[in-house]
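User: Please fill in residues for this 303-position structure.
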């Protein structure tokens, strides 16, 4: 593994390698066991979009690993004035040891990886959100003791989260059922990948997706960059909500995950959100541990 660009690039073995190391790093952090695997290393964090969890978990994670993190707001860099990403990649490769980038186009992340010679980590694009899904898989395994054979349900927009969850879930042997409106399906490459699996279903019916599910996911109806579509999307996604009716058809011990930020009474009711708040905030915490594992594997000294 040289980069983390999207879930599609990871093998099942690599996913488990990350999750196992994440569990170990979490244990070490909770027990005060030093794990300075990235002493003297610097991570650059380029943000073209807002963030709470990604920024703070990467920055803190790097600190806990003995390294340093630089917050680089794209609007204050030359990249924001049109300097090509290919040049930015080659310049930053001379100074720092890895780049985390949150941006719009997946191609920008892929270009950084192609032109730079340091590891690139995708901190969210319009197409994918691999760091989040690694934390999600870690959390499901913590609660359920396994991933293989569980049923994952996704209800809502066929967006970055849907794409990464479908691919990640299938790669670890989960049954995945996504309910998305016809006009808001997951990406063509995601559906092409998923079509190779018997245990994938795409439906427009949230109750079908939720039936006997072990874990239910949803995400905002309008993602970052889609703010002007918010009203249209409110109409299009009516009914694509995790609520009591949906929970009633899932397994009695089903867990609920949300990458956050959540829009209560849109994609999830306040009642369901609060009933599953521990699982959701464990999921948020696990961003820290999963990303520390990714950084150690990508940026640590290989022996
Ligand atoms: N879930 C997530 O990526 O959160 P932020 O947008 O706050 O980073
Ligand atoms: N789909 C959301 C996820 C935020 C973490 C967005 O892209 O805004």
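Assistant: Residues filled in for all 303 positions:
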């Amino acid at each position: 593994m040289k980069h983390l660009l999207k879930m599609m690039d990871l093998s099942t073995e690599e996913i488990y390698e990350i999750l196992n190391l994440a569990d170990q790093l979490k244990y070490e952090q909770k027990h005060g066991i030093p794990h300075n695997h990235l002493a003297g290393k610097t991570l650059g964090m380029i943000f073209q979009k807002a963030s709470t969890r990604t920024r703070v978990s990467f920055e803190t994670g790097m600190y806990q690993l003995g390294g340093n993190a630089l917050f680089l707001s794209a609007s204050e860099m030359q990249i924001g004035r049109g300097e090509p990403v290919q040049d930015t990649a080659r310049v930053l490769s001379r100074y720092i040891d890895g780049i985390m980038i949150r941006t719009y186009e997946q191609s920008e992340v892929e270009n950084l990886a192609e032109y730079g010679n340091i590891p690139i980590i995708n901190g969210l694009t319009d197409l994918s959100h691999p760091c989040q899904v690694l934390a999600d898989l870690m959390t499901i395994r913590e609660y359920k003791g396994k991933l293989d054979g569980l049923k994952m349900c996704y209800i809502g927009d066929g967006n970055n989260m849907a794409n990464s969850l479908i691919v990640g879930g299938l790669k670890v042997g989960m049954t995945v059922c996504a309910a998305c409106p016809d006009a808001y399906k997951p990406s063509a490459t995601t559906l092409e990948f998923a079509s190779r699996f018997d245990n994938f279903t795409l439906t427009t019916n949230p109750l079908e997706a939720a039936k006997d599910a072990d874990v239910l996911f949803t995400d905002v109806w309008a993602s970052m960059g889609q703010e002007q579509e918010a009203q249209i999307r409110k109409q299009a996604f009516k009914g694509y909500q995790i609520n009591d009716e949906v929970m009633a058809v899932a397994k009695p011990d089903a867990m609920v995950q949300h990458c956050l930020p959540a829009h209560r009474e849109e994609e999830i009711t306040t009642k369901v959100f609060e009933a599953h708040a521990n699982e959701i905030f464990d999921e948020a915490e696990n961003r820290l541990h999963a990303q520390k594992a990714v950084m150690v594997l990508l940026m640590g000294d290989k022996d």
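For context: The mean pLDDT is 97.
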